[in-house]
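User: Hey, quick favor. My workstation is busy. Could you predict this chain's structure for me?
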Amino acid sequence: MDRLMKHTEENIQKQQALDKKAGVDKNTKSGRSAQTKPKGSAVAKGKKRKADSGIEDNPATEKLIKIQIPPNLKKQLVDDWEFITQQNKLVKLPRSPSVDEILTKYLEYRSKKDGMMTDAVGEILNGLRSYFDKALPTILLYKKERQQYREAISDNVSPSSVYGAEHLLRLFVKLPELLGYVKIEEETLIRLQQKLLEFLKFMQHNQSSFFLASYDGTEGGGKGKDN
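Assistant: No problem, here it is.
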């Protein structure tokens, strides 16, 4: 299962190229889609996503891993989109708990629950951290957040030590397509889906302490195109 969470840079570059080719900002689209259809799945099926994005012959859409985002977290994604694109606000950085701290808390939680440290969980969490650090600047930010990113992140600072649950949750919208570039056996796919769902349930259970209730207003922020 460890290899599934590797090759992150290559996968993200492929996804970024496809997003650019399609001319679609899936962050914004995901928010609007969730807002207009709150009861629908946050991750569309392969064929529908292909039709929506205008991407043809995309191998990543043929066998998408399905990640069922809990309803409360779907609403969190909608609120996140609205705060930034409609209310011109930003997540105040650095966040506490950070992505690193959330992953550590989950590892401690699983260790206590299972009575031991499981290698599979550790590998997946390391993979999530790696995906997050590489994906954040390329496919997880809205345009209005890019200046903040440049100010907050330097060469020796990883995004996972600065950003928090709000941006980590966005990664789960993108993961099905990012993992679509990795050859996954059916049995392994089912196990991975289950472990990712367990992590999302942990985030949902700690929603009040992990997520901000409101964002900060931006200084001098204009009402430019939201993407």
